[in-house]
Amino acid sequence: MSHIPTKDEVCQPENMVYSRTCLLTDNALSYCPGCGHGTAHRLIMEVIEEMNLQADTIGVAPVGCSVLAYDFMNIDMQQAAHGRAPAVATGIKRLYPDKFVFTYQGDGDLAAIGTGETIHVCNRGENITVFFVNNGIYGMTGGQMAPTTLPGMKTATSPFGRDTETMGHPLKITELVAQLPGTYFVSRQAVHTPAHVRKAKKAIEKAIQYQKLNKGLSFVEIVSNCNSGWKMTPLESNKWMEENMFPYYPLGDIKVPK
Amino acid sequence: MKDIRLMKGNEAIAEGVIRAGCDGYFGYPITPQSEVLEYLMANKTKERTGMIVLQAESEIASIHMVYGGAGAGKRVMTSSSSPGISLMQEGISFMAGTELPCLLLNVVRGGPGLGTIQPSQSDYFQTVKGGGHGDYKLIVLAPASVQEMYDFAKLGFDLAFKHRIQVMVLSDGAIGQMMEKVELDEQIPRLTDAEIKVKFPWATTGKTPDRERNIITSLDLNPVKQEIININLQKKFKHIQETEVRFERIMCDDAEYLFVAYGSSARICQKAVLLGRERGIKVGLLRPITLFPFPTVELAKLAKQVKGMLSVEMSAGQMVEDVRLSVNGAVPVEHYGRLGGIMPAPDEVLNVLEENFIKEKKYEPHTN
Amino acid sequence: MTEEIIIAGFGGQGVLSMGKILAYSGMMQNKEVSWFPSYGPEMRGGTANVTVIISDERISSPILNKFDTAIILNQQSMDKFEDSVKKGGILIYDPNGITRHPNRTDINIYTIDASDEASKLGLAKVFNMFVLGGFLKLKPLIEPEYMRKGLEKSLPLRHHGMIPENEKAIEKGKEIIKAKYLVN
Known about the structure:
- The structure holds three protein chains of three kinds.
- By secondary structure, chain A is α/β, with parallel strands linked by helices.
- Chain A has helices at residues 7-10, 37-50, 69-72, 85-95, 107-113, 115-123, 164-167, 173-178, 194-212, 227-230, 234-248; strands spanning 57-61, 76-79, 100-106, 129-134, 137-138, 144-145, 183-190, 217-223, 252-255.
- A seven-stranded mixed sheet of chain C has the order 2-3-1-4-5-6-7, with helices on both faces.
- The interface between A and B is large, with 34 and 40 residues.
- Strand 2 (76-79) of chain A pairs parallel with strand 9 of chain B.
């Protein structure tokens, strides 16, 4: 029988095919197993590391599941009030135009309570990057209806399904901001399969690159699952996302530089 | 030669912040303070000192832009008038929780609601007793002249950074809109980014290998830790109460009766003191310059000397509560105020003082 | 010396700017000054008034209800401010448009036909300077050289060409002010 290598023998630099970015801390992620936030965090941190931007980056985490993003991202960060991350980022970027400034916001934060800040940061064309994680629900507070909750979708505050007659329609805020002259690059991605992860990373790279080139605001939506909030297993939730979320929120670039 | 100008209060504080090396102003127009934003825009601050001025989409956005800039160690500010300040309370509370320094200006107008655009002092409770959620205090400076509007720009920033606290200049429509002589100082240069990184090691200026990452947050879900955070905040407020009290005594040395008033009411009372002296009444004025910290000790001292105090405010009686707490029953304290944007006249407040304490009418203790 | 003045009339009559020029000139002459306007919507077409104080000492209240001098340019202001002139004080008014003339007997009352004179001389734009001239005749608080400095400081640069007209109006105002009733 041939020799089975020990762990120490395997863990040699020449065998290295992948390692976690040093821009993620050692803190265990507090997101539910199966949630897309962890992957989204990793991609953004990887790109910042690869572009050697750690010393120039200031991130803004708002209220929602990502409220503790600063526990996991090894960069300078400010925690913003609910919905106000675009304003906070504006304050930072205007005073440090050479730094890389981004917000990382959920759907409730970006498309409900912070709609005004979102529209205006895009309309001013602030030279920042907005990462928008859309899972169609308020995860942190326990699965209430979000502005992006699909018609008929059951949540804690729409227990019989979202009735668009009385509860309004899911807000396609990404398409909305794409129409504003201040946005430069607007894209919608997902992170639930390796292929999607690769595409999402490319979009994140572009968004960061455009900020470095002072092109104005880049906006990257990541359609994600919320298996806890949707009350499904992770695999079920990914399938449900593909079948229900993607038709309403189709993936791909929405606005690309001419 | 001294640089002396005739300026509106709102213009004076705008000039004051430029000269105090302010890095950024974020604000939204509202009467009677729009001149602040207008003056800054007209003065091309970007070219003059590099100061950024941005008209935000709302007062809410303004205060959170201030939060972002302050969290990154910059000298930043906003200004508004009463309804706009109400909208900012969320951000102010967040800044209290994160101990971020900033300068705030409220050119108070009458309320509640949309109220009036005329001068008022009815935001004392909101400013001095909290405003937003949580246990916190602001340092509150109450200018009574256009010169003080100018001076408190620099003083406000200095105090804000000395204590890592939010400083509110609590003015009113009268001080904001009137013109007086102002003596201006030399320009103070803005700090460079490199200086900020050294002077404010807590600021989010980008994580470099020489330090851990900086995080600006008011969140701690562990109640034991959250209590410690709150206790430390309270220690800071206590220290400020002990070290930063400012007030002005006007003809207090031989006073038998005392006006207590701040801001434009103090100016009215100053005239009333002169009129009172003409009538042979030994009356003085204690003018709190800081409303937090309040001149509690000074008032307690004066309570041993005078026969009565009249707190004069353009409100239904807000500061009077702090005057009563300060004298703790040692001397009768009454309130006189006009509401809704009406300003009392000097002889009017003097007559009230006479009626309360000097004329035959016996003093009746307040019942509330 | 402390002179407490109210100037009141319609918005657009130059009430606030007259006060500003007076205050600026006083400041140039090294006096303490304050200028407190009525502000807000009432400025737009309604009544406007401004309290100006010029003093050798620190000014106490910029807000007053009794004045040494009231300068009144419309009927509403007459109704509002006639009673606020201190006993023995001065009331100056332009009779143009006044339907109820002042009737106090404990103050000195002067009239100035400023609007008539200004339009006669084609100087309607600087009507307010005629009135200011009339006031300065009675209360020569400001030396002419400081008036000029005050005009230079308070008028925007693009209007500096009009300073001679302003000065002419001030001089003319001094000539046309008339006593109507004097307390002994």
